[in-house]
Amino acid sequence: MNVMQKIRAYIKGTGSYVPPKILKNDFFEKVGSSDEWIFKNLGIRERRIAEGEVTSDLAYKAGLRALENTDVSPKDIDLIIVATSTPDRQAPSTACFVQEKMDAPRAVAFDISAVCSGGLYGIAIGCQFIETGMYNNVLVIGADTFSTITDWERKDSVFFGDGAGAILLSATTEDKGFFDFKLHADGTGKYHFNIPAGGSEMPASEETLKQKLHYFQMNGKEVFETATKVLPETINEILEANHLTSENVDWVIPHQPSIRILQETARKTNIPFEKVMTNMDKYANTSGGTIPIVLDETYKSGKIQPGNLLLFAAVGSGWTWGTALYKV
């Protein structure tokens, strides 16, 4: 490869996997919710729940599907990044489990934790390894089994589902690929979505189990207000930095927080909502898996065409948030 040419990371393959078990909204009537309210406010009809499968199983299956119809085999992968908030174990990384299951012996493997922004953060990291010339094929997987950290007696249990998506990034010198990222974090929001126990701050004990502190806790009002503030800001930031407007965007590939958050974000950025890709009606919020899953489905739908401009956007616990621009 000519070292004088600009190396970019482009999407060579996408894949996704969701467990077969479907949990519909009527299940949540026992916690005081309803199908009508959930669909109207969140856009969710149903979600998938893993049974007999762990996070690395979902990630592994999505990863293999991302390699289909490409000339890349597992043995050609240089790096596996798994974005997850629900790892198989605290150690080793879920990515190491995936590497073994995929039989990808050359691949370096590690996890990242940025919750719902994890997929986007993982893509940004993978692109850096490719742009520096260190690696040629990077597999970024977002995978979560939030059913394992959900208290089904709480009203906020309606939000999440299980699933995994994978993106194979490869090197190119053509005029395509990811060309900008804007990533942010604000640790002052750390308590508005968190899992209190299980880490060094509050190790597992009989008392933490009794108090259900190993399940996620969410302040829904703060999530909505933060998301509808920072997502429009960072979308406008990346467009302005690249001398683009909302009219230049062909498709928005967002994480799937709720239909109302995405509608409000589209309104504030003057992006027609029909350009915003969603699948939360089928899968709810699959956290780190949301962006790669919706990207895979959008590619397979035939909507994405050469020359299109894709805008990626996500916000998650931490707070973490960001955007990316991609030329097909």
What does this structure look like?
- By secondary structure, the chain is of the alpha/beta class.
- The chain has 2 domains: 167 residues, 3-Layer(aba) Sandwich (Peroxisomal Thiolase, Chain A, domain 1), CATH 3.40.47.10; 149 residues, Thiolase/Chalcone synthase (Peroxisomal Thiolase, Chain A, domain 1), CATH 3.40.47.
- The strands form 4 sheets. It has a 5-stranded mixed sheet, with helices on both faces.
- Helix 3 links the parallel strand 4 and strand 5.
- The relative contact order is 0.20.
Number of domains: 2
Binned strand content: 15-25%
What name goes with the CATH superfamily of the largest domain? Thiolase/Chalcone synthase
Mean pLDDT: 96
Biggest β-sheet: strands ordered side by side in the sheet: 1-7-6-4-5
- What portion of residues is helical? 25-40%
**How many beta-strand elements?**
13
Task: Report the C-alpha radius of gyration, rounded.
Answer: 19 Å
GO cellular component, one term: cytoplasm
Subunit structure: Homodimer.
Pathway: Lipid metabolism; fatty acid biosynthesis
EC number: 2.3.1.180
